Amino acid sequence: MVETLGSLAAGFSVALSPSILFYAFVGCVIGTLVGVLPGVGPLAGISLLLPATFGLDATRAIVMLAGIYYGAMYGGSTTSILMRIPGEAASVMTCIDGYAMARKGRAGAALAIAALGSYVAGTVSIVGLMLLAPPLASFALRFGPPEYAALYVLGLLVLAYMSSGSMLKSLAMAALGLLLGMVGIDQMTGYFRYAYGIVELGDGLGVVPVAVGLFGVAEILSSAGQAAPPEVIKPKFRELLPTRAEWRQSGWPIARGTVLGFLVGILPGSAHIIASFVSYAVEKRWSRRPQEFGHGAVAGVAGPESANNSATSGAMVPMLALGVPSGPIPAVMLAAIMVHGVAPGPRLIQEQPQLFWGFVASMYIGNVMLLILNLPLVGLFVNILRVPYPYLYPAILIFATLGVYAVNNSVVDVWIMLITGVLGWLLRKLDFETAPVVLGVVLAPLLELSLRQSLAMSDGRYGIFVQRPISATLLAVGAGLVLLNLYSIARRGLDWRAKMALAEKGDAQ
Amino acid sequence: MRHRLAVLPLCALLLTPLAAAAQDAFPSRPISLVAPFPPGGVADLTARPVAAAMEKVLKNPVGVVNKTGAAGAVGMQYVATSKPDGYTLLLALSSISIIPEADKIFDRPPAFTVDQFAPLALISADPTVLVVPADKPWKTAKEFIEDARKRPGQISYSSSGIYGTLHMAMELLSHSAGIKLRHIPTAGAGPAMTAILGGHVDALASGPAVVLPHIKAGKLRALAGWGDKRVAALPDVPTFKELGYPDAEFYIWAGVFAPKGTPEPVLAKLRSTLSAAVADPDFKAAMDKLETPIAFKQGEEFQKFFDADAKRLAEGVRKVGKVEGKK
pTM (2 decimals)? Predict the structure, then answer.
């Protein structure tokens, strides 16, 4: 412990040097920007800036790139809350309750809670990174294909809790998402599926264009279809800050989101996206007023926004402790330090202490910077709502198109965004929720690959899922959830969900 | 404010054709070097110092463009069909010879073919090495192969994906040694490494730079290499050639290509530029940091290497065939 504090102090002396502070700040600002702009996410931001880091040294490079990663998690909530357009894929869940809060005039409060939740999650999860990196990283490695398959099955079961309307409809949407996720090269055999000769479709449907289409473009289309333009909400200055009740409601969700996000983040995959989905489901399950979800529940903003932030620290664990990329973003960050002759591997922390501890310390500082940067911006961003829709929406559409194009320099992605946009508009007309579609698109390729890898490992025997302790445990938890639900349905007949769906139908007519 | 800013990129788009209109002696405008893989991968990390060194020699901007998708097929197809004027070049990896063969196997129209390109220069060629987790019983490649012969299909290995480079290396070995291994494809070189570090598979063929830290840390053990010479950083690890498996030869290489039909004077200029570029001290330092030895070849020599490699890989892909066709 004393040793850790000593190392951390040394790390702070690195991180507080003017040039490191400068690059951390640059990273945080760029991160906030790529987060705010719909379409462009942290991966695109980091990839675009990677060449710019070649002239720096390894520590400066990784400090700046990490700043972009966690900075994007702060910025991502902005457009989700104000316009129901996810700034990046991990903010999809924030669209639901964040936007509902904004419609009630609580946009400022939602933005402030998202920023503060991000700050708490960011800071606390670095403690986890600092103290537990080596043991947690070796635990994460024990997750092989069967464990992932079990985890994703659990993730899909959790889906059932996400909807606020009919469970049947949300399961149908999840199935649609899973089907859309089937597009692309079959990783096990090399066959192209549903690609129709378009080489770009070999990679499947990207999460970014689908999320921006289903939420952003669909929102713009459905506003355009209304007879009267949506009312412009003019925020008042004293309504910018959350009320005491809102603070109280966000405390536990932030704490739970932080722990959960960090743990999910350690596991390789698109962790920050999955973490936000899981957190939303958990908050809804644990809430005393689940019927508020979807209608501006504070916890529905606080939980996911904290989770996606602490997932970024979690993702650094395998990267720094073992030199193993836990997803596309850490992979680019590893490349950034490799270019400087630092070989990522299990001895990175011992061999490059100034890099590791300087990096950890810079994350503490970066999170403070982001909080200072984002809280005053709340007042500014909220004013975007004053812009009349005929100007605001076309501008957003341009930004979203540019952003989606920039990710892969691909026009095909722009088409995917537009087509899913129309699909999303149709689905909303028919009262379907679109968040489960996004989760399905994220999970389908992961679940399929890990399931088939497991079966390749076991030569086709399904026993592999129950013989391995971690996957057996995860599956048991999933089975428990199903049984619990069946029990409560059997006991109560109609649960609140069905009642609410009925009530909503009444409202609509 | 936001909507006004949106005009800027549009202006930039409108101005580009004007800049392109004026051209005389090559090169008179920026050259793009297309890396068909995302930033941070081998192709990208090689392309950047190559572009920087070319820029120095030509005194003309050379930019790296990441045109990614479908395991490199998107970027390669893009260069194959772009105007053969020397302004769009490709930095390709071994997969350039694999993708068209895989397309053939599935009877689909190929995204591109190898003869749509004019090879300019080979930049690096790193042989893969066979690694196993340190707690596995095999101490030598001989023990590994003998055990695999006794238990066909029982020893598993991870790869960067079906028909990917790491898969092909293992297939060439399996064929040369007459063994059968169990293939667990993953979604890239990173996940393939994670799988072996977690002990979920028994073996992996990998580029030497990536596994060296794990060998040094005692997590993995190198058994043999696929090169015609031993890897400099692993002097005690024999090659499969030495062990009597001459067909197990495989390199993860990076080379520069132009579209076929580029005028000969332009090709000549590019070739002389590249040979000056690889001698640049900054370029050497950059490759050194990546722990990737430079293996420069051009003209006849590169063509010969490329043809031999393409032939080996084509045979490898055909031997794998369609995966679902067999048990």
Answer: 0.83
